[in-house]
Each structure stands twice: as C-alpha cells, then as structure tokens.
Design brief:
The chain is mainly β and about 110 residues long. It contains no helices and 11 strands. The strands form 2 sheets. Strands 2, 4, 5, 6, 9, 10 and 11 form a 7-stranded mixed beta sheet that branches. A 4-stranded antiparallel beta sheet has the order 1-3-8-7, with no helix packed on it.
Length: about 110
C-alpha cells in the first residue's frame, strides 16, 4: 500500500492550493478516503472525508466552505482543493485509508 501526497507549498493568506494523493496497492475505487493534518505542536486533526464513489463529502467545521475534497477513481487519485487559506491552516497534510497514510505534504500559510 502506498499513498503519495503532493501539491503543498507556501502561500499567502487568502491564497489557494490543490493537494493530490496518488495511491496504489489497494482498490481505491472501493475505499473511503480522508485528509488529515497536523500542525506544529498539535495533535492530528481530521479535515475531510469522501465516500468511495465520491457521492458524499464531509468536512471539519474549521475548513467547511473553503476546502473541497474530490477523487478520480480512474487515476487512483484523491484531491483537496483549498481556498481562502488562513495561517491556522499551516500543517502537514496527509491522505489516509483506514490506518494507512502517506508521508504528507507541507502547507504553510504566511505573509
């Protein structure tokens, strides 16, 4: 099982980023997927989840209305579109399937 995130970077407040997570080693099209994050000095935080067919998405209150999760089952890829970014969104973001997760991609929101 592999989950490989990309798309992180440094952006100013109010900016946008699109994260991607390419997976292999399991049947992605049957998997409920999630994005989580961990900010410096804090514990892990669930950010968003999506059903296997992409029909339903769920968000933490802290990101609702600003982030959009999606997936392309043909490409074994999970996405997280992040808009109106705030400094408090700064964290290591990683995708997860059950208790499996990738190495993460760093998002830094700063002037």
């Amino acid at each position: 099982v592999q989950l490989v995130e990309s798309g992180g970077g440094m952006v100013q407040p109010g900016g946008s980023l699109r994260l991607s997570c390419v997976v292999s080693g399991f049947t992605f099209s049957s998997a409920v997927m999630n994005w989580r994050r961990q900010a410096p000095g804090k514990g892990p935080e669930w950010v968003s989840g999506i059903t296997s067919d992409g029909g339903r998405a769920y968000y933490a209150d802290s990101v609702k209305g600003r982030f959009t999760i999606s997936r392309d089952n043909a490409k074994n890829t999970l996405y997280l579109e992040m808009n109106s970014l705030k400094p408090e969104d700064t964290a290591l973001y990683y995708c997860s399937w059950g208790d499996r997760e990738g190495q993460g991609t760093q998002v830094t929101v700063s002037l």
